[in-house]
Design goal:
Elements lengths: L1 E5 L6 E5 L5 E5 L2 H6 L3 E5 L3 E5 L4 E4 L7 E5 L7 E3 L6 E5 L12 E5 L10
Parallel strand pairs: 3-10
Antiparallel strand pairs: 1-2, 2-5, 4-9, 6-7, 7-8, 8-9
C-alpha cells in the first residue's frame, strides 16, 4: 500500500510503498529513545522524497554510518538512512499522514547493544 507523510511544518514530504501489517521497530538507542522514533523500514526503491531535499540537514554520531535527516525548519526526523539496515530507509511511523491504514506490529529492537552502537 502507498503511504504519505512528512515533517511537522510540511516542508519535507515523502511517499512509500509499505506492507499493510508491517513489523515496526521500537529502538532503545540514545537518539531513538529520546525522540520516540518508531522505525518502519522499507527498501530504498520503495521510498520517494517528494519535497524538501533542500530543506533537510544531516546529523551523524557514533560510527557515522547512519544518516539522521532532519527538516532544517521544524527539526523533525520523518525518515533517515539507518546503520542497522543499510539497504533501506527508516520512516518514522509517527510521521505518516493521519488515517494511513497501516496496522503496525511494534517490536522492541536492542539498539543499545547493536554491533558498533553508541548508547
Amino acid at each position: 500500500m502507498k503511504v504519505e507523510g512528512g515533517c511537522h511544518c510540511g516542508l519535507v514530504r515523502f511517499e512509500a510503498d509499505v506492507p499493510e501489517s508491517p513489523e515496526v521497530l521500537d529502538c532503545d538507542c540514545s537518539i531513538c529513545s529520546m525522540t520516540g522514533y518508531l522505525h518502519l523500514i522499507v527498501p530504498d526503491d520503495d521510498f520517494r522524497l517528494i519535497e524538501g531535499r533542500r530543506e533537510t540537514t544531516t546529523y551523524r554520531f557514533g560510527t557515522g554510518a547512519a544518516q539522521h535527516i532532519f527538516c532544517s525548519q521544524c527539526g523533525i526526523k520523518s525518515f533517515y538512512k539507518p546503520r542497522s539496515h543499510p539497504k533501506g530507509i527508516s520512516i518514522n511511523l509517527r510521521c505518516l499522514d493521519e488515517r494511513h491504514g497501516v496496522e503496525a506490529r511494534i517490536v522492541k529492537f536492542d539498539g543499545k547493544n547493536h554491533a558498533g552502537a553508541v548508547a
